[in-house]
Amino acid sequence: MRYFLILITVLSFQNSFTQSIIVDENYTPQQLVENILINSGCASITNVVVSGGNYPTGEKTYGYFNNNGSSFPINEGIILSTGKINNAPGPNNSLLDDGGDISWQGDNDLNTALNLSNSINATVLEFDFVPLGSQISFDFLLSSEQYLTNPSSNQCNYTDGFAFLLREVGSTNYQNLALVPGTTIPIKINTIRGSGTICPAANEQYFDAFNGINYPTNFNGQTKVLTAQSNVTPGTPYHIKLVIADEGNYRYDSAIFLKGGSFNTNVNLGDDRTVANGNPVCSSFDLNTSLTGNHKWFLNGNEIIGETNSTLTVTQSGIYSVEVTIPGCTSSPTDEIVIEFAPTLIQSSNNTFPECDADAIQDGITTFDLSAIIPILFTNLPANYQISLFESPMATSALPLTYQNTIPYQQTLYAKVTNISNCYDTVSFPITLIINTFTEDYSNETIGICENNSIILDAGNGFLSYSWNTNPIQTSQTIIVTNSGNYSVTLENALGCFKTKTFNVVGSEIATILDIEINDFAQNNSATIIVTGDGLYEYSLNGLDYQNSNIFENLTSGEYTVYVNDKNGCGQISKSFYILDFPKFFTPNGDGYNDTWQIKNLNKQGLEDSAIYIFDRYGKLIKQISPLSEGWNGIYNGNLLPSSDYWFVLEKKDGSRVRSHFTLKR
Fold first, then answer.
1. Could you give the CA distance from residue 89 to residue 217 in angstroms, rounded to a whole number?
2. C-alpha to C-alpha distance for 396 and 661, rounded to whole angstroms
3. Rounded-to-integer distance, Cα 568 and Cα 447, Å
4. pLDDT in tens, 648-657
């Protein structure tokens, strides 16, 4: 039993090696192109030329291959290699690096296409052809020994390359069709590579695998099956050149496998014309194959009866396809295109957008959020249409989404489609911005409230709505409050604009007079009223004329009553005081007027016990009088003193003194 299992294992291992591709060097270049690569009769082939390595033993670097029922992804076709093709079949158990000793040159056209200068060991297949269809394509994959699973860092930049070069006969400018799909990047070992090694991955979605030993070819890895294609003009002669080469040296061979029968001449109706692609059809549109032959046109899978020409006028959206029978072609080229007509945009009936002037200056200038306006401008706007707003129909600079109007109170803007321009280049849709203002008075107020009282706050009439910040919210024009604090009301005017008015309610009470500070016997007699209380007070000396200052100046001597009034109506208090002063002169002439000199009303300030001394101008004491006496009559020692200035000293009980002078006139 043990030997039986060993035998089965050996046979299975050997059988896995037999599942390799096979190659055939016996096909002529003409047969390879006409019978293997094209095999359809849809192109006229001439001038087939092949060149490759010139081995003394006669091995070729090009030929036919077949996958021989293996897992290799292409059934059959043409192989072009930088080494002997008879070394290409698997297993992958040896290093392929042929062509090191036969002076095998590179290719200048390949160097130009890949931006190289050092290609070597080039194998070239080229021919002329005249396509019957408007598009050519063929399938291929790139295999290479340079797809190392354990490379050193200096091996990451070595890259064999190939090119599929196309030009019209008579032209010298080639177009390289062997590009990474969707890019302009030429396909090489380092532009399509898988991950998992120290070399960086590149476009690995197009890489197939690193190959183990048990693989149908003797190459270390390969790309997925890719397609090279190009539009061509039917009936025009073209030249195609398929070339692969090593870079720098002969080591690590590579090969191109061209799929048999994949060189197709097709019809090309062009790219889909859809709203999603940004290129919908604007009006009636012609599809044209530019092919001579019998045409069958289809709309959404149904044949359009009677349409057999190469041109079809399209008038409705749908999936259009064509099948062309071309004399000499064993296949009928087909193609399909999706056509969508750009919708006629329907502007919403709501094309006027009011906004309230948001700042304190109600000048009709405010900021609009255009991102909130744009989505509702049209009723049938497709999802991928981009709308922008402009200040004029001819403007090219779109407005920012946060926009401040430049024309007060009302301004017209214009909506345009900006990302799908082929049908809407000159179409603009006007909208109107309306800027409403709040011109009613909403200035803040400060109001006093007396202790244990209530007041009415009135927000003013003529507003659509009121909303007070009370708990619960009150919605009337007036409210009654009993406590101090800030009360705010949000007002809505007739234009739907809102503003907030604040009432600062402050507590207030009748004042208490603590003291009256008197400055008398001075050039500027004054009185300062000292009060206390939680209120806003005003002051008066006659009960009629009030001032905010608590200081009264330039007072003459005499009795005063000060009135302190609470401005918030919480009451009034009063108190009397006296301003003292001395007469500036007296006339002792016996006429009954100013016959004596005395400081009066000292008792009103409790100074009746003070002493008054009178001196002449030389400092001689003339008289001492009592505040309660009639005063001095201008006589000293029985003699009438002459007119002159005399000095006095008022000596108070607290020791302070008032010193000044007066005039005696006769």
1. 4
2. 92
3. 7
4. 999 988 888 8
Tell me if 566 sits within 8 A of 511, measured CB to CB: yes
Contact 155, 72 (CB under 8 A): no
Q: Which two tokens stand for residue 380?
A: 């049938």
Q: Is 134 left (phi over 0), alpha (psi -120 to 50) or beta?
A: alpha
DSSP state of 85: G
Nearest residue to 257 (alpha-carbon basis) of 246, 247, 244, 248? 244
DSSP result, 615-660: E-TTS-EEEEE-TTS--B-SEETTEEPPSEEEEEEEE-TTS-EEEE
Beta strands 367-369 and 485-492 are: unpaired
Return the sign of the alpha-carbon dihedral for residues 452, 458, 464, 468. Answer: negative
What are the pLDDT digits (tens) for 504-542?
A: 999 999 999 999 999 998 889 999 999 999 889 999 999
Classify burial at 481, counting beta carbons within 10 Å of its beta carbon; exposed 0-12, middle 13-18, buried 19 or more.
middle
Strands 302-303 and 285-288, bridge-based pairing? unpaired
Q: How many residues comprise the chain? A: 666
Question: CA 271 to CA 212: how far, in whole Å?
Answer: 41
Instruction: In whole angstroms, give the CA distance from residue 325 to residue 336.
Output: 16
Total-model pTM: 0.52
Rg, Å, the chain Cα set: 56
Q: CA 201, 207, 208 angle in degrees (round to 5)?
A: 135
Report phi then psi at 53, rounded to 5: -70, 140
Q: Which residue has the higher pLDDT, 2 or 133?
A: 133
3-state secondary structure (DSSP) of residue 84? coil
SS3 for 28-85 is CHHHHHHHHHHCCCCEEEEEEEEECCCCCCCCCCEEEEECCCCCCCCCEEEEEECCCH
Residue 6 has a pLDDT of: 37
Residues facing residue 575 across a β-bridge: 562
pLDDT (0 to 100) of residue 11: 38
CA distances from 271 to 302, 316, 337, 339, 433 (A): 21, 17, 7, 9, 41
C-alpha 100/C-alpha 120 separation (Å) is 10
Q: Is the peptide bond before 343 cis (omega within 30 degrees of 0)?
A: no
Strand arrangement, sheet containing 318-325: 302-303, 294-299, 318-325, 334-339
41 pLDDT band (50/70/90 cuts)? low
The pLDDT of residue 431 is 96
Where are the alpha helices (H) located in 389-428, listed in sequence order?
none
SS3 310: coil
Partners of 322 in the beta sheet?
A: 297, 335
Is a pLDDT exceeding 90 seen at residue 234?
no
494 by Cβ neighbours in 10 Å (0-12 / 13-18 / 19+) ranks as exposed
Query: Positive or negative CA dihedral for 176, 177, 180, 183?
Result: positive
pLDDT tens per residue across span 167-200: 999 999 999 999 999 999 999 999 999 999 999 9
The answer to whether residues 484 and 454 touch, using CB atoms and an 8 Å cutoff, is: no
CB-based contact 151:198 (threshold 8 Å) = yes
Number of H helices, E strands in the chain: 4, 45
CA distance 371 to 402: 8
Distance, C-alpha 478 to centroid of its chain: 46
Give the integer Cα–Cα distance in Å for 20 and 214.
9
111/162 Cα distance (integer angstroms): 9
What would the 3-class secondary structure string for 570-627 be?
CCEEEEEEEECCCCCEECCCCCCCCCCECCCCHHHHCCCCCEEEEECCCCCEEEEECC
The 3-state DSSP class for residue 221 equals strand
